[in-house]
Amino acid sequence: MSIAPADRIIVPLDVPSAEEAIALLDRVPEVNFWKVGLELFVSAGPAVLQELKTRDKKIFLDLKFHDIPNTMAGACRAASRYGVDFLTVHAPAAKTALAASQAAAEEGAAAAGVKAPMLLAVTVLTSISTRSLAFELKVPLEMLDYVQQMALMAQDSGIGGCVCSPLEIEGIRQVCDDLILVCPGVRPTWAAKGDQRRVKTPGDAIKAGANYLVIGRPITQAEDPAAAFGRICEEIAAV
Ligand code: C5P
Fold first, then answer.
1. What pLDDT shows up at residue 195?
2. Ligand 1 close to Cβ of residue 217 (< 6 A)
């Protein structure tokens, strides 16, 4: 099923309080899909999800669970009851934990009578450098090999998608056809890169095979956020 360009853009609610989140929602009502991360969820709690539901928005709950299988399953079961669309887990929690998370997400959603979220595995945080992977984490693989292994393991565990850098899309697509790929690290040519270093434009990320893009500051900090969002939708629609 094809996804409308506007529904491929997920905007992070990167603010520390419910009041600021509501102000941002009011500022860009055109955005359909919002990401709630750890800071906002820890400070504002599930009420912020309710606010998004009331406004008929799609929700990416980005809590990046990483724990023993029983604990991850419990967290996924509980989070699924909110009726969110995407939910993140860390792939290095390994196969038993990922499979238990997937099963529990389905159970939790069914018990609450809502649609199960798609679980997204974070392969390797993009803040981890190749140097840190080798010398601190002692992973004896090249970064892309490791990312591919994590994506394959997630897919084999029944997980539906991955969060990855746009520069890893082609490598993941070589080994996993079916995963839904959600990419932060996206910058239109006309926006400041900020602290993002290894970026692709929205059009290039979609061309490379991304399904969804997480784009924050180029929209939220624009003088006219609605116009910035519209411009990105047009760029994606033209691919
Ligand atoms: O403002 P910007 O477009 O850089 O926001 C990107 C969003 O995606 C932020 O919420 C950031 O935390 C998140 N993210 C990221 N890189 C990752 C994972 C998540 O930028 N590897």
1. 83
2. yes
Q: Separation of 214 CA from ligand 1 center, angstroms?
A: 7
Secondary structure class of 152 (helix, strand, coil): helix
pLDDT tens per residue across span 101-129: 999 999 999 999 999 999 999 999 988 89
Q: Which long-range contacts (CB under 8 A, 24 or more apart) does 176-181 make?
A: 176/148, 176/151, 176/152, 179/151, 179/154, 179/155, 180/118, 180/120, 180/211, 180/212, 181/209, 181/210, 181/211, 181/212
Q: Would strands 58-65 and 180-183 be described as parallel, antiparallel, or unpaired?
A: unpaired
Residue 37 Cβ < 6 Å to ligand 1: yes
110 Cα to the center of ligand 1, angstroms = 30
Query: Residue of the nearest CA to atom 21 in ligand 1?
Result: 126
- Catalytic positions: 64
Ligand 1 center to 69 CA (angstroms): 26
* Coil, helix or strand at residue 75: helix
196 ligand 1 Cβ < 6 A: yes
N- to C-terminal Cα separation, the chain: 17
> In the chain, where are the structural domains located?
5-237
Please work out whether the CB of residue 107 comes within 6 Å of at least one atom of ligand 1: no
pLDDT over threshold 70, residue 1: no
Q: Which two tokens stand for residue 4?
A: 């409308």
Residue pair 9/229 in contact by the 8 Å Cβ criterion: yes
Rounded average pLDDT over 136-156: 97
CATH 3.30.70.120 matches 5-237: no
- 36-65 pLDDT, tens digit each: 999 999 999 999 999 999 999 999 999 999
